[in-house]
Fold each of these.
Amino acid sequence: MKALILSIRSEFYKSRKTAGFWSVVILPLFLCLVLFINFLSNNNAVGTPSMLLWIQFAGTIFGAMGTLLLPMLVVFTAYSVNNIEHKSDTWKTLFSLPISKFSIYAAKYIYAMFIILICLMLFVPFTVGFGNLLGLLKPQLNFGDYSMINILLKMYFKLFLSSLGILSIQFILSLLFRDFLKPMGIGFVATMAGVILASDHLVYAYLFPYAQQMLAASEMPQPHGQHLAGGSLPAITIELFTKEIYASLITASVIFFAGYFIVLKKSVK
């Protein structure tokens, strides 16, 4: 465990000045800022009920992230974590350290997971913050009458779980190929195939890793029931562990351990 923690810390120090590291902050900030400006300059949402206003605001960001942007983020993150060793040609040096090869491999994978998780979780405070700021700048937008924090946390955590299958695949590809074009090309083509499968609502689309994040993103929360007599808002429910999430976790686990054997072969080259 100590070796694993040291390896994770090493990954942080090696990548803290790279584009892959700072993209976890820039991406959610940029998307939320763009939609904030759009809502600020658009009066079409005036008079919309608070809950529906939040769903419209948060759903636009969530939908964009869950379709094409998340797979590309995973591709970029997986490659950037391993590219540090490819670029400096330090794989042999890394494997010669008195640390188990599994700790080195697991640390890189866990760090990539951490980067993606942080990026997705940052959408929650940015979405809530920009939404409340809209309510202050445009009081006619009733953002302050409803809180969506808990819902957003579940939504983005589910999106994170749905991305783990893709991460495992792209992580192995980034180990096999030194250049960015091959894993990027494979990831892009697979993502397009996933979009088609998910859009067509095929029965077994949830088994394809690159369709799982889109299936999770398509389940945007919808209000259930009617407004109560006192004017209270209906409840919104989110089922966290659905079939595509289970498929993603199984895929991630199987490919993670398969990737370890690739690392073993790579270490003796």
Amino acid sequence: MNRPPHRRRLPDDGIIDPVAVQIAASGTRAVALTPAERLLAAAAILARGGTPYLISKLLHVSGTTALALAARCQHAQVAS
């Protein structure tokens, strides 16, 4: 019997769960994140010297998504 894949993306509800972001960014376990939380987790990974490859592994996203998240983080950093 096949189980459906675990969803790791939640709809954006405007609420940020910092504990979920920390758990995801540390790689402790897989957690479902909103798009905003996923971006914050990616930023935390990059701030610790991580790479898009590490974002991909820790957040369980594709390489393309990891690169896009990293680019958004860098763009936000330059804009501020």
Amino acid sequence: MADTVESLVAGWPVVIQLPVVWGEMDSYRHVNNVVYFRYFESARLEYFRRLDWFEFERATGIGPILAATQARFRKPLTYPDTISVTARVGSLSEDRFTIEHVIVSHQLRAVTTEGQGTIVTFHYAQGKKVLVPEDLRRRITELEETVQKQ
């Protein structure tokens, strides 16, 4: 039995859909590897939006910084296609957390890419890294728990 897009993104609290755009392809006729990081960014920002982190940052001065990112390319994406891009927190430590991603091709009905990013909490006015605030930890936990309630 073939996988479905829904089964491949089950268990992720944030899933967004994006079109694969013709201009994202390179001379090798597949999506350029730099574009995958933009896909991850879109899902990451949706994750932050659902945390209401932008308002939290306005109130506290504490925002996210992407400290590291990586991707594992399993299958090439090509135009035309629609993709689902996921986001969830894989690990949470004192001053950072890891956000995980997969990209699923609707055309291939397969995971094409796996990735992750390390997010550091940063106080912009003070110009320094800070511990992940308890309120933000609570928001992350609540968002992650939405998967189990579906």
Amino acid sequence: MRARWVTGNWKMHGSLAANARLIDALKIGLGRIEEAACAVCVPFPYLAQVSALLSGTRIAWGAQNISEHDSGAYTGEVSGAMLTEFGCRFAIVGHSERRGLYAENDQRVAAKFLAAQRAGLTPILCVGETLEQRERGETESVVARQLDAVIAAAGASALERACLAYEPVWAIGTGRNATPRQAQEVHAFIRARIAAHDKGKAQQLTIMYGGSVKPGNAGELFAMPDVDGGLIGGASLVAEDFLAICAAASRQH
């Protein structure tokens, strides 16, 4: 059975006090959701706090970004080795906001993917199309290009130590979301693309959906055969909502 993860992406939100309240609520609530595999990816300054609060719990944690460099004169960058010192399990690479706002191209995303794995982290590789690309019928070609860049750099076998997240850019923070059928179509395409290299690894790969997942639509999305959980943005900052999404994922086991 594939691992089913619900991973919160806090983006550039949080404070020491708010984080503590949120994590306390998650620890209590997840005690009643036995099957949930849950993680939070937090801003760099809060990794020490999150590491201390979550150590020994069922909740994993990770970073929202990573440098492609292991060390050196790269002011402002954070290496994979630094992240592992704070107990990180995951690092998000290729998020649409990094691609769009900071001009991270496919090759740089692939380099970050490799850097995460060199450090022993599990990269969460994000792929997805803009609204304009979807309307032009380019969804599959865009997702294939993003995915193939990583396969070319790391090899298909590297996906065995990774998670994927399909995040239609037009559904992030907009209140819109892909229908369960639309999400399933792209997830199935991703799995088939990888199966062309290695069918066994494709079947075991966790592919999360990210794009305005909420308690009201999580159950339908997670019921799709190739949707293995969610990469959750705004709803991950509200304990009640995030726990409801985790519960929806646990019911699909």
